[in-house]
């Protein structure tokens, strides 16, 4: 008789963490029980070795085709950015504060790309004055704001055009192309956008930015998007009459959050790159370009856990509720309120692997029925003081959440590396 496949949580723990002989979950070799005792709960814990493993695996998979930068929005803590900088990554940022965080983490300004549909004049002054490597233009008003900032600073700014592609390039769990969008210039107005940039003496058009979708778990979907991106890049190069220097194909690489999600097959991704590499080689206007992937979730997500302590366990009309000190104010995505249409459970586990498991609702301390971390989590019998951990929490956790809601204190963030833990954001009071 064949054995049933392990559930997602069991698989993720085996891939990224471990349990000791007593069943306690360890991150980076340190027991979460000890970390929770030292730094309090709720608590975010990140494993630096896990960050490095994810980066190295992806870099190896796309070697010969693209370089890998880090999308800071996924987790903008400078200590996390620094780990990826040490691995050789540049940074993609979406605000002036993220620019400062990346520079503070050691990333040279010329290795930083600025994307986002609503860049303010103040942020543009900040990054242009700081010597940013490239700004990705998303609309006409922004084009003129960047040109004005370049004029004020007496410099020429390297820019790329973000293109909102046609329907043929869509894909991933969240479509960002093939429909009306605030992101980028529509593909239909590519010629006009190129001409508008070329008329600005302080702007130097060097590349393309394409981001057709996010949370992509299928290699063929990503490969199709990237192939389409190369076609658009060739069009821009032809219109400018000079080779492109940068082709930013975005991030969009997904990680499994829910039961039934498949892990992205890096082997299939690598095997499918040969035609794309050949496309670059055959076109002299693209052959010298730096092709960039800038994932965030894929690199940071699996290395993090969110730890919460049980405050109470109650039974209400046949249902079990585990009430914790952590919730949607720190981890909006896990609550299902960060853009999900159908709310599904992130993998949630007991930090101490007790016997038995039955479905229960894990809810937080906020006075709203939206504050639910899991709706049918298979957990053992728990009691006040026990710990639960939300896996896949290294990306879009704390800074993607309404931390001021109901004025609960900020949790600490801890980075574990080499068997030692360091506070990278102090716990609030």
TrEMBL record:
The active site is at 367 (proton donor). It is an enzyme of class 4 (lyase). GO terms for molecular function: diaminopimelate decarboxylase activity. InterPro entries: Ala_racemase/Decarboxylase_C, DAP_deCOOHase_LysA, De-COase2_C, De-COase2_CS, De-COase2_N, Orn/DAP/Arg_de-COase, PLP-binding_barrel. Residues 51-300 form the Orn/DAP/Arg decarboxylase 2 N-terminal domain. Its cofactor is pyridoxal 5'-phosphate. Gene3D superfamilies: Alanine racemase (3.20.20.10), Lyase, Ornithine Decarboxylase, Chain A, domain 1 (2.40.37.10). Its EC number is 4.1.1.20. GO terms for biological process: lysine biosynthetic process via diaminopimelate. Keywords: Decarboxylase, Lyase, Pyridoxal phosphate. Residues 44-394 form the Orn/DAP/Arg decarboxylase 2 C-terminal domain. SUPFAM superfamilies: Alanine racemase C-terminal domain-like, PLP-binding barrel. Belongs to the Orn/Lys/Arg decarboxylase class-II family. This is Diaminopimelate decarboxylase. It comes from Methylorubrum rhodinum. The lineage of its organism: Bacteria, Pseudomonadati, Pseudomonadota, Alphaproteobacteria, Hyphomicrobiales.
